[in-house]
Amino acid sequence: MTTRPVRTVLSVMAVAIEVLLIIMVVGLTHGVLQESTKRLQGVGAEIMVQPQTTSLFMGFSGAPMPVQIADKLAEVEDVKAVTPVMVQASTEGGITLIYGIEPAGFDAVTGGFRFIEGHGLESPDDVLVDDVYAASRNLKLGQNIELLNQQFHLAGIVEHGKGARLFLRLDRLQDLMGSVGKASVFFVKLTDSKQVAAVLERMRQILPNYQLRDMQEYVSLMIAGNVPGLSNFITVIISLAVAIGLLVIFVTMYSTMVERTREIGILKSIGASKVYIFHLVLRESALLTVFGIGAGIGMSYAVRAVVGMFFPTLPILITPNWIARAGAIALVSSICGACYPAIRASQRDPIEALAYE
Amino acid sequence: MSDIIRVENLRKVYRLGKVEVAALRGVNLRVEEGEFVSLVGPSGCGKSTLLHVIGGLTPPTAGRVQLDGTDLNGLNDAQRTELRKQKIGFVFQRYNLLPTLTVYGNIALACHIAGNRNGASRAAMNSIVKMLGLEARLDHRPAELSGGEQQRVAIARAVVNRPKILLADEPTGSLDTENSELVMNMLQELNHKHGQTILLITHNPEVALYSDRIVSMRDGHILESGLPA
Asked: What ipTM does the predicted assembly reach?
């Protein structure tokens, strides 16, 4: 390892990139999901009502429900407040959720925004953004923002954690999307949060064709495995990362073994068995991998810090569980990559090996 | 004394493509325990091949080799490796030290491979290092040593596990006269003081004089065997 420092460093870096890729891809997907979940919990509702065929992930299902449903829901016993929300995904500068809200009703459910600067949605062209979104785009109060091909006036910057990062008036968003009088979801606040099951049962009596969800249950479904295609995407990236690590270790150990043919002959002449030489090669590749894993973990934290500085809306969740998994995956792929060179080395004819120049 | 090496009608044929080359053509040789035997002969006469077959590095084509009562013909590759580990030490003309290890590392490696990692092996190592005058060079790498010192390290590595047989293939072939004498004196000391059985290949008649008996080879045959003149 020390006689060929450049090759050693490159091998360590390849393993580090393998680990980094795994931790980053998983960290990004889990981070974004966790962050969305937290914001949804921040709304403070106990129940949400959606159309029967809606996607688990809001913003992609349109707004097919009449807002009048809110009046029916508000009449149900133990319901404190109901607010209709239209959810729209904006793809400008990345996918960001916009909530179309009725300010008074939304405040009744959520407890209201905590304003860092500015005021609420007073005119139809006002927009509120949360502090994270404002920081990520360096937005200043009072400036114009283009959203959904329209200009909006930044009326206020609010503390993050109330469902979306941008908020428009419900009627303005309905107009823009051609869905006047419609909503994507109703958030329901109860007088007693222990009554969720009972209230859900009452609501099902009056709205049998809608999806009525316990908010806690919904949050528990917000995992990567429930996002269509996401698990496959993660699997593909992990497979690519494994292929990189496996090939680099294979090439490194194979070229090392060719270079050290004579040393293998020496070891055999002093009694080293095939198993001894096989283990020797595997131990060396394992050592390279351990250094690579360490470097990969360090790089992951460094990349997260850099991403956090430049893209604050992209949370990366690094968990001990996935660090351990990425390390194990790298170790297994390296050992697989080193197996063939190790077998070749162990089977070298000692006399031919001793004569190798 | 009993025979520690017994070679009977040994034949070894190498295949080079479609051509067969007979390196050994019916060799018979006996070496007694504690004997120091030199094997002399011109290049290509089969000396090194004989040493490799006796050392279990390559199997014979025909004939028998017995080492300390064990017939090599009955052993598979793993068993031959085990026998080599326990009973044979090799010394080569080109020293064959591992360049990345220190003197200590090279000698300790032989202990490690033999599975001797306890105090006894440390004591054996200290004793052999002292005998070969390597105490001050333990932390040096082979590239920092003279040829004579490297060969002494190779001898130390070969005998540290107290093998019954030491096989030396032209151990002075790369050394000047002074270092050759030094190395041969050490081999002789090992033989006289510790009863180490040594089978040594050499081109140099002066080197052969250090042994108890000289065996001449030509064209894959043993020609004669006798006491040094």
From this structure: 0.89
